[in-house]
């Protein structure tokens, strides 16, 4: 029964945490018994079971309970199969979503070598706009996961494609994550490539795209600032924070600091 498999999936994370805490007594139980179930349920015929499996997998990755070898040899190959061009539409959309969510939890090497090529393919998926929409919404997170070199070499050309997509929702999603993409690039790329691209979004024919671009204008401008003088920095949770200067703090030590936080990730906007 699908409901039984769904309930089972919801119990996997707490069991895995218990096994991790009791590892001397159960050194291989998780890898031998639980991990194969999680991987198998990613391709279950029932939609609800698959979603429960995906949620369980993300929790296990957040808790750092999945071995790197299992990620590369078991999880990634399944997701690459599900997101292949000839894959079922529903499976493909789910796989893209899980790939984007996983990226921030995996090592840069794993993301760049195993998942990035497929992500770039999916950005140009001409069959399903839902796939491109997920890619656009999570573009900043992927850039942050792979770093500046891979972003400028592989992702920026795809970002240009998405920013000129015929579906306005795609362009709006790009506008929302523009600051996160810009932060990952060099000052020269910001000036020569991203600035003209941003102007095209702020002049878009769709008012929803223009509105999203104007809302991202301040955060985008902030990526041009010198962090040492402006006090701007990106926190680990993907937010842009403005640290008050030492002079302001010293002038009124009893006054609480007035940090301003702006969401950097399109997914969190």
From TrEMBL:
SUPFAM superfamilies: ARM repeat. GO terms for cellular component: cytoplasm. It comes from the Eukaryota. HEAT repeats lie at residues 115-154. Keywords: Repeat. It holds the Pfam family HEAT. InterPro entries: ARM-like (IPR011989), ARM-type_fold (IPR016024), HEAT (IPR000357), HEAT_type_2 (IPR021133), PP2A_Regulatory_Subunit_A (IPR051023). One of its GO terms (molecular function) is protein phosphatase regulator activity. This is PP4R1 phosphatase. The lineage of its organism: Eukaryota, Metazoa, Chordata, Craniata, Vertebrata.
């Amino acid at each position: 029964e699908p409901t039984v498999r769904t309930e089972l999936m919801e119990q996997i994370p707490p069991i895995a945490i218990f096994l991790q805490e009791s590892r001397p007594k159960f050194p291989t139980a998780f890898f031998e018994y639980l991990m194969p179930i999680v991987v198998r349920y990613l391709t279950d015929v029932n939609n609800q079971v698959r979603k429960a499996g995906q949620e369980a997998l993300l929790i296990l990755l957040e808790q750092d309970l999945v071995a790197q070898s299992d990620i590369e040899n078991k999880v990634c190959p399944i997701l690459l199969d599900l997101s292949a061009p000839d894959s079922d539409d529903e499976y493909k959309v789910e796989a893209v979503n899980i790939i984007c969510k996983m990226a921030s939890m995996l090592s840069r090497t794993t993301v760049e070598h195993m998942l990035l090529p497929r992500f770039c393919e999916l950005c140009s998926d001409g069959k399903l706009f839902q796939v491109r929409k997920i890619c656009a919404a999570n573009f900043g997170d992927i850039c942050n996961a792979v770093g500046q070199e891979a972003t400028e070499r592989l992702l920026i050309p795809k970002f240009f494609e998405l920013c000129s997509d015929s579906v306005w929702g795609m362009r709006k999603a790009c506008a929302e994550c523009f600051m996160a993409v810009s932060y990952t690039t060099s000052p020269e790329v910001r000036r020569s490539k991203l600035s003209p691209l941003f102007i095209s979004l702020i002049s878009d024919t769709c008012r929803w795209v223009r509105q999203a671009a104007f809302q991202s204008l301040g955060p985008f401008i902030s990526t041009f600032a010198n962090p040492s003088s402006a006090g701007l920095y990106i926190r680990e949770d993907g937010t842009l924070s403005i640290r008050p200067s030492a002079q302001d703090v010293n002038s009124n030590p009893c006054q609480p600091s007035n940090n301003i936080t702006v969401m950097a990730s399109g997914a969190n906007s």
